[in-house]
Hints:
The chain is mainly beta. The chain is built from one helix and twelve strands; from the N terminus they run ββββαββββββββ.
Amino acid sequence: xxxxxxxxxxxxxxxxxxxxxxxxxxxxxxxxxxxxxxxxxxxxxxxxxxxxxxxxxxxxxxxxxxxxxxxxxxxxxxxxxxxxxxxxxxxxxxxxxxxxxxxxxxxxxxxxxxxxxxxxxxxxxxxxxxxxxxxxxxxxxxxxxxxxxxxxxxxxxxxxxxxxxxxxxxxxxxxxxxxxxxxxxxxxxxxxxxxxxxxxxxxxxxxxxxxxxxxxxxxxxxxxxxxxxxxxxxxxxxxxxxxxxxxxxxx
Length: 251
């Protein structure tokens, strides 16, 4: 069955609340690098322009972060320095064309939480094919997070008059360079070399009425092969990352 072209198509001036839940379990580049569990919950305010539906303004209204079930010194107010109110222009496929987001990083380094790519973990979780798609037939694309390419494979699984169910698969093969406290550095200054392989699976429900994803979730597992400057193997790293998004109308 051939579908018409799928595309983001939010209503002019529409107002939304996007609930974002990100959980990390495993090795994280925080406090010198350590095994930990981190949970981040966000309530994101999302408004589309009155004249151009492909221009969106987003702002984090609430944020709670836990490290091993204990609160981190990070909330919506303090996060505004790193994730301020942001205006983004995108196309109907979900590619970001313009963004006024700053080139800043959270004080706690959490993989994938990149201010420039915040729409990708909130209201633009996948890109659509620029041609018609078929139920059961996959299409592929890449996204870049903090300079690292992630490969997506998306398969439309079912369709009704109201929604489309999309299956999502992720892969990444990355080499990174660190000092002896797990901080990223240039290759020339590196004391630790990490080759990471990531695989992930998830799904999303795209509303044909609102032109947005109502729900989206993905779980990714990464395994890192770690070596020092002399090539000696160090302790391998493992990290499980879970992302859940729920979009609801507001006002």
